[in-house]
Amino acid sequence: MLSTSVSVTSRLPSLKIYRGLGSIPAPLYDDSIIEPLGFPSNDNLHRSRNGVRVFDLLEGNGVTALRRLYNMLLKECTVSKRVDQGKTVHAHVAKSLFRCEVVMNNTLLNMYAKCGSLEEARKVFDEMPQRDFVTWTTLISGYSQHGQPIDALVLFIQMLRDGFIPNEFTLSSVVKAAAAAEPRGCCGQQLHGFCLKCGFDLNVHVGSSLLDMYTRYGLMDDAQLVFDALESRNDVSWNVLIAGHARRCGTEKALELFQRMLREGFRPSHFSYSSIFGACSSTGFLEQGKWVHAYMIKSGEKLVAFAGNTLIDMYAKSGSIHDARKIFDRLAKRDVVSWNSLLTAYAQHGFGREAVCLFEEMRKAEITPNEISFLSVLTACSHSGLLDEGWHYFELMKRDGIVPKAWHYVTIVDLLGRSGDLDRALRFIREMPIEPTAAIWKALLNACRMHKNVELGAYAAEHVFELDPDDPGPHVILYNIYASGGRWNDAARVRKKMKESGVKKEPACSWVEIENAIHMFVANDERHPQREEISRKWDEIYAKIKDLGYVPDTSHVVVHVDQQEREVNLQYHSEKIALAFALLNTPPGSTIHIKKNIRVCGDCHSAIKLVSKVVEREIIVRDTNRFHHFRDGSCSCGDYW
After folding, report:
1. Which of 90, 481, 555, 557 has the maximal Cβ count within 10 Å?
2. Please, are residues 525 and 616 in contact by the beta-carbon 8 Å criterion?
3. CATH number of the domain at 405-505, out of 3.30.70.260, 1.10.3720.10, 1.25.40.10, 3.40.50.2300?
4. pLDDT tens digit string along 300-357?
5. Where are the PPR repeats (predicted)?
6. How far apart are CA 67 and CA 34, in angstroms?
7. Calpha distance 187→594 (Å, rounded)
8. 580 contacts 608 by C-beta, under 8 angstroms
9. Nearest to 305 by CA among 342, 271, 332, 281
10. How far apart are CA 75 and CA 67, in angstroms?
C-alpha cells in the first residue's frame, strides 16, 4: 500500500516548505502586447542572406528590434520546430540590449528545449547571468520530455541546493523523469513523499504524473489511491489510469473506468480511445471494442491515425480482418504505422497476396517502408508459402539500407522450411551474418515437425534447448516428432528430460466471447454449467467427421496410455470443447471465433477443418502463432503453422 510517510532522499538538502506557493510560472512571452509589425507572419522566418528575412527588413531601414519581435519569432520557431532559424534569432538577441534579461533567456531556453536541442539549451542555461525557477523548470522539463531522465533528476537536486522552490510544473516533470529512469525503485516514491511535504500531492498536474509513475511500476492499487485522492481530475488523469490498466491487460477495469469517465462528464480523447482499443485488442474483447467504436462515431470524432491504428489492430486480432481493412480505408490520414498495422494484420491471418499488394501500394504512395514493414510482408509471405516474393523483399530490404534483424531471418528459415528445402534452410542459418537465436532454430524445428525429419529436428532442438532452456514448446514439438515416427523410447527420454529440468508444458486453454461474456475452457473441462450439452454436441459432431474420414492423430497425446485412451483424450482438448459450446450458443451460419493461449494441436486442426464442412460455417481460431480461417474443409494456413 502507498504510505504517506515516504522519506525524502538523503541527497536532497533540507528545505523550508511553503504551502499555497504560487504555482503559475512567469510567462515566457506576452502575446497580448504583440502588435502588427507590418510583415506577413508566414514570411518572418524565411531564410535570407542574414539568416532571417525580417532582420534584413529591420537592418535595411535602421530599425532596432523590439522585445516583442524576438518573442514572436522565437515562439514561431518553437511551434514549428525550426531550430536553425531559432539559432539565427538567438545570435541576433546576443547582440541586443536584451541579452542578459532573464525572461528573454528563458524564452531562448524554452525554444531549444521544446525543439529537442538539449545541448544548446544547456549552453544557454550555463551562460545565464541570472536564473529564476522558470529557468530551472524549463530545462528539467526538456530533459524529462526528451529521454534524459537522469539529467532531469540531477538538475532538480541542483535546483534545490541553489535555494529555488519547485512548483507543480517542476514536480510534474521530475516525477515523470523518475518513472522513466528506473523500472521500479524508491526514487519515485521518495519524490511522492517530497510532493506530500510540499502540499502538491493533490494537485491534478502532479497527481497525473504520480499516476503515470505508479502504473509504469505496475503498482495499480497505489495508482488508484492517488487517483481517488485528487482534489480535481482532468482528461489526463483519467487517460493515465485507463492506459495503465490497458497496458497491464486489465481490460475489464479499463472499460469500467472509461464508462465512469463518461458518467462524470469527461469527453474521451484519442488517447482514451487508443488505450481502450489496445486493451480490447490484446484480450480479443471484440464486442466491447465495437461498443466503444460506436460511441466514438456518435461523438463525431474523426478517425485519425493515432486511434485508428489501434482500431485496425483490434479488429484484426479479434479475427475481423475485413473490418480492419475498412478502418484503414476510412482513416483521414495514414502514417507508416497505419500501413504497418494492416500489413501485420494480413500477415497474422495468412493473407500473403493481399499483404504483397498493400506493400506495393504503400511504396506507390511514397511511404518509406521501415524494418517493421518488411518484417510484416516477409511474415505474410512465410505464412502463405510465397517463397519467391519473400526472397525478393528480403533482398529489397538490404538494398534499401535496412540491416536484417533476427526476426527477418526467422521468416526466411520458415519460408524455406515450408517449401520442404530443409537442407537449404540449415545452410542459410549457418551462413547468416548474425549468431542464430533460439527463434531461428525453433523455425527450423517446426519445419522438421511438419516434414517429419527426425534427425534434423533433434539437431535443431538441441540448439533451442541450449539457448532457451525454459521454453516448454520445443520439448513438446520434439516429443511429437519422435512420436509421429514411432520412436517412443526417444519420446520418453524427452519427457524424462522435461521432468528432470523442471520444464512444464503450459496448460492449454481456449475461450470464446458470446453476448459480452468470455467463456474459457481447459482440457477435460467439467466445470461449465452446460458441460452435458457440450459433451453431447461434440459426440454428435465427432460421429459426422468420422464419416468424412477423420482419424485421431494420437501422436499429439503427451502421456503414456494405450491407444484407445489416447483417442478419448484427444476428443476433450480445450479448442474442441470451445467449438462445441459455440455451436450450441451461436446462430446457424454465423462465424465462430475461438482463441487459444498456445499453438493449436495437429489433431484439433484436422478435426476443425472437417467440422467447418459439416456445419457449413467459417471457424476462425487464433493461437499464439497466427489466425486459422477454417472454411469448407480447408484452412488458410495450408496445413503449415
Report:
1. 481
2. no
3. 1.25.40.10
4. 888 887 899 999 999 999 889 999 999 999 998 899 999 999 999 999 999 999 999 9
5. 101-131, 132-166, 234-268, 335-369, 370-404, 471-505
6. 10
7. 44
8. no
9. 332
10. 12
